[in-house]
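sanity check this record:
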Amino acid sequence: MACVLAIDQGTSSSRAIVFDEDLRPLGLGQRSLPSIYPHDGWVEQDPHTLWKSVLESGREAIAQSKVPPSKIEAIGITNQRETSIIWDANTSEPCCNAIVWQDRRTAEICEQVQSDGLEELVASQTGLVIDPYFSSTKLKWLLDNPTFRGLAERGDLRWGTVDSFLVWRLTKGRIHATDATNASRTQLFDINQNQWSAELLKYFGIPRSTLPKVMNSMDTFGVADSKWFGREIPILSVVGDQQSALVGQGCFESGMTKTTYGTGCFLITNTGKHRFDSTAGLLSTIAYRLNDQTTFGVEGSIFNAGTSIKWLRDKLKFINAATESEAIATKIEGNTKGVYVVPAFTGLGAPHWKPHARALVCGLTLDSGDDEIVVATLKSVAFQTADLLAAIRQDRIPLSKMRVDGGMVRNSWFCQFLSDVTELTVDRPMNVETTSTGAATLALLGLGQIGDLAEAARMWSLDESFHPTMDTDLRIGEIRGWTEAVRRTF
């Protein structure tokens, strides 16, 4: 029996799952990962804590699976994207905390990039908009530190998104690499030419020596040292978390769409072999690259989904567990009595792209209470998804149904409301943890245990479909109230 270890390094936690050749999970390990908030809009993580969480979750998954390390034939890695880490090439020690994708500290740098007239170049080469979300301005901000700049100019600094840091650590500094999906989110990668952009590296003042080699999503990324998991294990896949979920959902045909509800919410529509440029605030991105053949996608990014529910639990103390939100929504029949929550804690992403926007609660009366705010927060994630789908329709991309995954979709009330406000059939799979599954799928493809993408697609199975049932006037009224609430954050 061939098994693979999928490492899923996310924003809120690191998890690892051992899968067999039929993509059945055999063992799970998970460690929470805290974020650090030094200033308003700043979000950081400790790379040492991140690395430790990956090792512990991987070892736990193997132990729980009862599969001996000798039977683990490959590792697949999927990761939070855009988060930036720099480290010393000689010691492998991180130079500072990681700057997380949610971080807004580079808003002024982005404004300067816009003033310098680079919007068209950035869009044409990278498919992205200018926003602090992406890695380019994070790396520039780091290199504005004279110490880090000196290391970089001497060729002793290495930079990467989380996947590159993990590959470097797992291979003990032998491999500095990333894959095309992660590279496409840096705002430094020309997705047309499949190479780092010379023009953008020059503009941001980034030495080429700091950057990783860009490889296929299914490729040979070196060998994890035996010190980590009990034997040397080849790393056969690396893929950004949202693209990994696209693979895990079997969305291999043009027009197929998945939406993942984790820390944030991310929608990707497969657009096939041809890049599609949005006119409605969505992003062109690489969906995956296999055998040097690129498949493109259109993506919409929402910065706060699961974090909003965590805010209700940890800060407001309105709930003790995320699962309570479904019972509350059912109890009040979704009626928030005009209360809206816009969770722009770290700005608004697609299709608005407002980095300075901040969260608000509006429509409060003396009749409003905890329950209304809880359900309004839950609804806000569905409303934001509706905004993304409106942009996709504006771009004339055909949609008939949507596959959803992530922790939030275990909430059936949320899935039904999502179907109602988007007017789409929402398909929830049996396995909602599709991010890990995607990395495992690509690793098994690399081993030859899965023959091709068509075989991988047949391994997807449906749990439940949700169909729109909401009265049209009610839906229009709900969305009108949401749109007005969003406008106020501007």
